[in-house]
Amino acid sequence: MTKKQVLVTNPSGLHARPGAEFVKVANTFKSTIKIMKTDNPAKLVNAKSIIFLLSLGIKRDTLVELQAEGEDEVNAVETLCALIESGLGE
Amino acid sequence: MEKGHAVSKGIGIGKVLIYQQFIPQVEPTIIEDTMVEQTYQDYLDIQAKANQEIEQIVQLLISKQDEKHKIFEAHHEIINDVAMAETIENFIKTEHYGHIYAIDEAYKMFIEMLETVDDDLIRERIADLKDVKNRLLRIAYHVPEKNLSRLFEKTIVVALDLYPSDTATLDRNMVEAIVTEVGGPTSHTAIIAKSYQIPAILGVKDAMKTYNDGDTLIVDALSNELILNPTDAVIQNYIERKKRHLEQQNILKTYLDKTPITKDGIKVDVTLNIGSASKEEIALEPYVDGIGLFRSEFLYMENTHLPTEDEQYEVYKRALEGFKGKPVILRTLDIGGDKTLSYMALPKEENPFLGLRAVRLCFAHLDIFKTQLKAAYRASVHGNLWLMFPMVGSMDDIHKIKSVIEEVKSDLDSQQIPYSKDVKIGVMIEIPSIILVIDHVAKAVDFASIGTNDLCQYLSAVDRMNPLVSSYYQSYSPSMIRILKMAIDGFNAAGKPISVCGELGGDLIAAPILMGLGMKKLSMSKSSLAPIKHLIVHHTMDTFKSLAQKAVTLETEKEVIELVQKTLQEASHD
């Protein structure tokens, strides 16, 4: 399994448009990908689901952790972290 | 019939269209093993059909260059969500639910999950999920789609509630007004009605039963009246009123840049209430005499952490510079009661409005309080800062505030950080007890501003969030006027500035009385600036004074309202 933490910096967090963009990219990978807020590890959810992602209510300045398991796990985590760091187009 | 809320002002006249969305009745159904594959295929067919319908709406909106196509793209995402697909597949294949039952249960589960998230943006998404669920179930029951996109006459839409699907495709040329049974001032329907400038009255109980398709209905969202099957004379009268209202709206806009001086030459300060010192707020600087209320709590509420001293400093500096030396009244942190912070666990209280809120909370968390004061004093060199403290109830509170300020100043001195020596210290007047000692208060502080919303709540012992007692919340009651008079007299006698920054500051009934009582500064939200300036330049201070003198002698709120309306009407005919 590959894990990495990343800080959400775009103004609206992982909501609406940016959240949908994130999920779209997550779905291009074969690995199972999960996401959680580092201050609430009990809620670890499917990062390929916009509904689960919304249920975390991730706002700006939240530290999140991505976990992937599968053949393209390293690539998945790196790509998604870079996407969040880039501000998701905001 | 119970009165609703006129959330979007104006008048609409037209034929009633009872808009009943499909309301599915779902029974728990369990299927035989042999039916599983067919049932799952049924679900996939419904999903495909829904995707098709949504795609058509997206194309229609794109062709009209309407930004709302994005809402429906989000509907695609929900329908095709992997977790949603897995859940429904599991309900059918493992639990053997019928396809309708599986759809209903899966969506309900996800809606409940999102309802636990405390976030306004998420609440809009919940409306989307409900919308998508209804679409799927409607298709499952083979019911054709009903929508408001093609109407053939001037229509009053009467509905239980409206979803994004209904409002996005709504025919704006034909919809004269909206009436719904549920929904308040901050609901989806209210926001849409305001942005389309369609008159709307929401929360009208039993509207769907009271009206029938084809009834003629006048929706007067100016005085919150609904008139069913009016006579021709009444219709004519309302057509005239509607015309006048639209003309007035256009004239009012031209008053934004007028100087607020009464006909007999008295200048009244008109100031702005702001929340974040945004670009739009600062752009209003040329039209106002300063900031009458900077609600600093927004800085705290919009954040995911306590804003640091530097973060606060930048925002305060922006406001002070933006208003170019005009007074900026910064209210210190006002949370507790109905306002909470997601990242700070505050104790649960039996009576939060009577509890540890505003300056009381700051006294209990001196570190937070001092951080804010330090940021404000550092920013004070960039403009004309007036610091105001909310929920002050006694002279003890004022003494405590002053000693904290002294500590903050000596910290700054020892670090050789510059700050303005002219920062004014004032209190927000909202607890009645402080008005009973107003002579002491006026000596001890530099200024005061009246928060009329809380003052009314505390004066009349009415929880302003409780709809059961809303008729007891009377902002124009003679008791309110008398206590306002005491506060104004106290500060005027001491020769110190007093203003009003609550709802009443921008209210066309209360403002004439307040000015007549001797209030020289009114603060309000942006939308009230032009109407209040219009009021000031068209009347004399004498009119306001004699109005106020009469108002303090009256017995009931109703009499006060009638007096103001009558006096202003007569005065404008002179």
Automatic annotation (TrEMBL), chain A:
<dbReference type="Pfam" id="PF00381">
    <property type="entry name" value="PTS-HPr"/>
</dbReference>
<keyword id="KW-0963">Cytoplasm</keyword>
<dbReference type="InterPro" id="IPR050399">
    <property type="entry name" value="HPr"/>
</dbReference>
<feature type="domain" description="HPr">
    <location>
        <begin position="1"/>
        <end position="90"/>
    </location>
</feature>
<dbReference type="InterPro" id="IPR001020">
    <property type="entry name" value="PTS_HPr_His_P_site"/>
</dbReference>
<comment type="function">
    <text>General (non sugar-specific) component of the phosphoenolpyruvate-dependent sugar phosphotransferase system (sugar PTS). This major carbohydrate active-transport system catalyzes the phosphorylation of incoming sugar substrates concomitantly with their translocation across the cell membrane. The phosphoryl group from phosphoenolpyruvate (PEP) is transferred to the phosphoryl carrier protein HPr by enzyme I. Phospho-HPr then transfers it to the PTS EIIA domain.</text>
</comment>
<dbReference type="InterPro" id="IPR000032">
    <property type="entry name" value="HPr-like"/>
</dbReference>
<dbReference type="InterPro" id="IPR002114">
    <property type="entry name" value="PTS_HPr_Ser_P_site"/>
</dbReference>
<keyword id="KW-0598">Phosphotransferase system</keyword>
<dbReference type="InterPro" id="IPR035895">
    <property type="entry name" value="HPr-like_sf"/>
</dbReference>
<protein>
    <recommendedName>
        <fullName>Phosphocarrier protein HPr</fullName>
    </recommendedName>
</protein>
